[in-house]
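Appendix B. Extra example for self-study. Work through it before the problem class; the solution is given directly after the inputs so you can check yourself.
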Amino acid sequence: MIELADIRKVFNAGRPNEFVAVDGVSLVIDAERTTVLRGPSGSGKTTLLSLIGCMARPTSGRIRLYDREITSLPERFLTGIRQNTFGFIFQQCNLIKGITALENVMLPAYPSGEKHALLKNRAMDLLDTFKVSRKAQSKVEWLSGGEAQRVAIARALINNPSIVIADEPTANLDTKLSREFMEIMGRLKSERKTILFASHDPIIYESDLADRVIVLRDGRVERSIP
Amino acid sequence: MEKWIERQKHIIDFTLSSLLRRKGKNAALLVVYTLVVFMLASVVFFVQAIKREASVILKDSPDMIVQRMSAGRHELIPASYLDPILSIRGVSAARSRLWGYYYDPVAGANYTLMVPEDPGPPAGTILIGQGVSRVRLAHEGDTLEFRSHDGTLIDLEVKGTISRESELVSSDLILVSEEDFRRIFGTPVGFATDFAVRVKNPRELSTVAVKAAGLLPDTRQILKDEIFRTYDAVFSWRGGMMLVILCGALLAFIILAWDKASGLSSEERREIGILKAIGWETSDVLLMKFWEGMAISFSSLLAGVILAYAHVFFTSAVLFEAALKGWSVLYPEFRVTPFIDFSQLVILFFLAVVPYTVATIIPSWRAATVDPDSVMR
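Solution. Structure tokens for the complete assembly:
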């Protein structure tokens, strides 16, 4: 369970270009359920996701993850949480160019010091699950949009995270690929993973997968459905 | 421990594939870097090897040389000065030497003419150094012509050449008989150029020198250590001169390397952001950058040192010989004995590897300490 209490995130504080991205958000996100943060561009969805995913710290407020207060933890601990608890799927896929799909999937586990053969097997299994194992040795820039997206999902899952965070995952996919993506997410949900989306794509927030939709506007929670 | 090793292996693996992704840029850097290390190492190896060579050859030089001075300049010394020197306790041997410089207008070169200690060549004949042989195309049986002090021409037959091992200091040497030497330079009988003195106990050398100066106030004493120091200074100076010339190239390279290493491209910044977002710690990113810096600089060091070794010890530093060896016309042509001082390698390591690695890490550290959420945007 993730609890946010009066979270505020201000960029460029004290400067003429000061910008309040998240303004006093309090939320409880249930474990093993799918939550969608919905709202127009600039509503604070991505910022809220990065705060929950320990990629940035709030300017004020508290975040609790499984009853543990994480906002005041040192960077090293936050990295540990990022590595073991969260799996990230980014809008642009953010795969590292010039190396193979397989290496990209293995990357998040490199610092763990896991045996190379074991790690490779796990990565191949994941690629196989998402039907891109035949592209394992291909450089990521040679992959199609859908293939790159599936490699990015495999990478997000390599450390077996309990929470999957996806930021606008269908923004660069056509309808068919978007539906395929949602099927994969459905499988993850059935594996009892907590899924957190930020999206304004109806394919996501209107899908049966979404247990709850939180509508954001101007950095505040406008309403929550249900 | 096993995990630690595995982690290093993974990160090195990723570093190498990262380097391969920017093949052209890194290969160019590697080539320039290797070239700089090569030049630096060549100078260091050559100067050290040549100094060592000279000291090996000079180890048989006399413990002390006594020269007569007149008005602050070196003068011929009367043979009668030998007795007072031999009377000093501790002196085991003293002998007079005849040597001088001869300018050869044909070759435009200066030769050193010397009467050897052992029975030298018979009158009318000479032994010549390799440099003289080369510049005058003179070999055994040929005749060389000398213009004596009074203008008469003297023909001397070449009896042979001096062994190659000692070419560094004998390239310009001509060994002549005493009789011919006195004919050429007009040195009167009963006079010598200087005295070579040997002492029983080297620790008494300074005392012997003080006594000799007391007995013969118009002489100066040159000790063996001073000869070594002079050679050392000459070769160090030549090496230093080369280094000054190299400094310009070195500086240009440092600017290039600093720019390459310290300026992270937006692509590299983005990658660091991704790595941090997917769970890499700042220390993992720094470790990766450390291996990247090491891979480039250490490979260059290794390649540069191997090339410099081959250049200095197999080709006798063919690129630098004009500047380093001296003898404006008579370049010694010899192979220095392969010799590397470990401390030189350590110095080269600190000059080549450390600055570059540090220059690689610092900007990455700055980028790696930034929140990784930038990749979300």
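Self-check: The longest strand of chain B covers residues 153-161. If your reasoning did not lead you there, revisit section 3.
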